[in-house]
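A common beginner's mistake is to predict each chain separately and then try to dock the pieces by hand. The better habit, illustrated here, is to supply every component at once so that their relative placement is modeled jointly.
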Amino acid sequence: MSKDSVKLLNFWPSMFGLRVRYALDLKGVSYDYQEESLSNKSKELLEANPIYTKIPVLIHNGKPICESLVIIDYIDSVWPGSHKLLPEDPYEKAVARFWADFGDRKLFDAGSRLRRAMGEEHKKAGEDFKWALMKIDEALGTIAPGKPFFGGDAMNFADVALAPFICWFKGYQKVGGFVLPGPEEWPNLYKWVDAVNSVDAIKKSTPSPDKVAEFAEVLRKRVLGAA
Amino acid sequence: MSKDSVKLLNFWPSMFGLRVRYALDLKGVSYDYQEESLSNKSKELLEANPIYTKIPVLIHNGKPICESLVIIDYIDSVWPGSHKLLPEDPYEKAVARFWADFGDRKLFDAGSRLRRAMGEEHKKAGEDFKWALMKIDEALGTIAPGKPFFGGDAMNFADVALAPFICWFKGYQKVGGFVLPGPEEWPNLYKWVDAVNSVDAIKKSTPSPDKVAEFAEVLRKRVLGAA
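With all components supplied together, the output reads:
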């Protein structure tokens, strides 16, 4: 492993980039980190991801891998190690992939609309965001009853894909103008949040929720200012 | 394999459903087929996919698997057989996943807008659709130079994910009001189209492009009628 060159092109608040950091840290893979400016992307980023010109990109021994779920799948194949993220069982693997994808499809989508939309659409985004979290709470109770993670006692592919949203909760509430239900209503979700937040590999790279919320409010103000 | 119960809930023109049929047929897995009415979904569909209430759903020995890319990944794990869809090599696997995802992200998205959007947005959808096909042409030339498929001499995960769009080309052109560039401009794409269309497993389940185009025009007329 010592001969491997591993580099991550990233932008610090990105939940997609955080996924990749979490996966690398859970595997104990060391990597070079390159912070990108989204308004002035590096030549390396533009060349490594010509289709989307977006972070995160993992460059492994000169080869670029793009799209966060593809990257964490790649990391799991190259460094299976002691902490496998994708279950061996095909059905359990499909369930993990389904919930990882759910994060992009529902949680990220509603979160984007919370930052961008106005009026009724903004209100709807808040409802969609809460619905998505409620579904995650239910899923945790069904898939891993009594256990903290989608992966049971350890984080799996779904956990790694969804965990980066946690540090955004505060920011989403601020720009959404709502307060999320608490642990009485979503016991599985909050148990999961506590478990994720206590994993060393997660603590290592997660930005402070205050800093993320500040960033989210800057984005929101830009939208409001332009409206 | 004879004891397996395999059932597909589908709607015939769906490219997502077609992917699943292609994967099952390439593997030689026989299955029961249930056509769903999107305006009157079966209780079985609603219970099997409570999150999205959408086809396709594969029900394997009573367990539902949802989301087409998750399903074809599942099929490849359960029935690896002689025709493996996902490459063993992690980088090649990542490339196949990237292009499969590209189909959803760019081709399907632009296609949806071709059916739904008006005016400038409709024009933009046509440009985006052609851009996506151009990128697929380029990718084929780079990933598998001289070979017909993303998978080289045989269809892989990316081929199965993208192949269902072929029978929609005619419909997309009709509702988009444009003519796609030909083989002179996109030689790799058309070589791929011919190769895909000559695979027995693909011929078996693909609806006629005329029938798909008719369906696309009905959808488009509904949008125009409501505008």
